[in-house]
Amino acid sequence: MASITYSSPRTVEEIYKDFANRRSALVRALTFDVDEFYSRCDPEKENLCLYGHPNESWEVALPAEEVPPELPEPALGINFARDGMKRKDWLSLVAVHSDCWLLSVAFYFGARLNANERKRLFSHINEMPTLFEVVSERKPNKDKSNMDSGSKSRNSTKRSSDALGRSTPRSYGDSYGEEEDEHSETLCGSCGGNYNADEFWIGCDVCERWFHGKCVKITPAKAESIKQYKCPSCNSKRSR
Fold it and tell me: Which residue ranges does the record annotate as region Disordered (predicted)?
């Protein structure tokens, strides 16, 4: 892998942002850039790995030469199985291994966090679909307890499950508190700020991250007319 230097994230929010950016890069490699990714995984080449970087770029490269490596390494030799499997099955296999790698990197950085911080980190991560779910187009299963709360869909704007819409303040009685609890650990994909029920939020249909409406310049009125929202990052990648 080419030598790329990044500062190590230390807080829950920094580690989560690092995870989300690496994940966004891998989502792009396995979906929008899939033909390019597929061609780079030539079985005739040496052992290759798929890397996602914190700057949201992806790379197919040889593994790190350092022993032990600076960070946990992705699955080795993903290119060797490419031509021996159906394309979709191979991509799903790469996605599963990439999910494992993303978690290992996040918890490598999180090893010095305390128990509550690690729990909060995993809670943030678990809000996102896995790469396997994205690639296989399998909808993530939600706990019945989360489905029963229903406050997100009932109190959101017309964008339904795709927006953490502005709730009518205090008019829903107890459901107001439930909404706060349900999304209290959601972070804005742009500024990293925590969820607040008094603010309008919108979810990207591509990378599954959530954003303050003000951070991506989307108002509740504008969201009404959007059928599929793409955040600025995903929109710029799509147009390349």
Answer: 136-178
Contacts of 38 (CB under 8 A, 6+ apart): 82, 87
Cis before 72? omega within 30: no
What is the rounded CA–CA span in Å between residue 65 and residue 1? 8
Query: Which of these, 70, 134, 78, 130, lies nearest to 105 by C-alpha position?
Result: 70
Dist CA 135 CA 2 (whole Å): 26
Spatial neighbors of 120 by CB under 8 A, at least 6 apart, are 12, 185
- Give the span between the Cα atoms of 38 and 101, in whole angstroms: 19
Tens of pLDDT, residue by residue over 73-122, are 999 999 999 999 999 999 999 999 999 999 999 999 999 999 999 999 99
Give CA–CA dist 220/208, Å, rounded: 18
Distance in angstroms (rounded) separating the CA atoms of residues 62 and 50? 9
Amino acid 192: pLDDT: 77
The pTM of the full predicted model, rounded to 2 decimals, is 0.60
CB count within 10 Å of CB 35 equals 8
**Does residue 216 register a pLDDT over 80?**
yes
Which residues in 53-191 belong to E strands, given as ranges? 58-61
| Phi-psi region at 187: left, alpha or beta (left = phi > 0; alpha = psi -120 to 50) | beta
